[in-house]
From TrEMBL:
Superkingdom of origin: Bacteria
Protein name per its UniProtKB record: YciI family protein
InterPro entries (alphabetical): Dimeric_a/b-barrel (IPR011008), YCII (IPR005545)
Pfam families, per the entry: YCII
UniProt similarity note: Belongs to the YciI family.
Domain YCII-related span(s) in chain numbering: 1-111
């Protein structure tokens, strides 16, 4: 079953930061463990929320706004898509994710929607 690991509130160091190599090594070790288990589907770090553009359509009119739509104390840092045998494995892998030590990892099953294209 596919699970989405949603990473919140984890500031990652920039490539010129001395902490970057260690942080990258921890993230790569996590991805390698997911691959070793056959669970890794994809992983995507996101640029900062200041790069976001929000699109909404109301009464047939498209509104495009720079920045995140909601003011929130949490920021979305990235996602992993994992194909796990069950929720227990997804939770175990979420706990191994290095960002869980500095932020929050939300685990959510991906819904299977009949007739929806591009599902795994």
């Amino acid at each position: 079953m596919l699970y989405l690991l949603v990473i919140y509130n984890c500031d990652r160091p920039e490539p010129d930061d001395p902490a970057f190599p260690d942080a990258l090594a921890r993230v790569n070790a996590f991805a390698d463990e997911c691959r070793r288990r056959g669970a890794f589907v994809s992983g995507h770090p996101l640029q900062g929320e200041h790069t976001a553009t929000t699109v909404s359509v109301r009464e047939g009119k498209t509104l495009v706004t720079d920045g995140p739509f909601l003011e929130t104390h949490e920021h979305l840092g990235g996602v992993y898509v994992l194909d796990c045998r069950d929720l227990d494995e997804a939770l175990e892998l979420a706990a191994l994710c290095p960002m869980a030590a500095v932020g929050t990892v939300e685990v959510r099953p991906v819904a299977a929607v009949p007739g929806l294209a591009h599902q795994a």
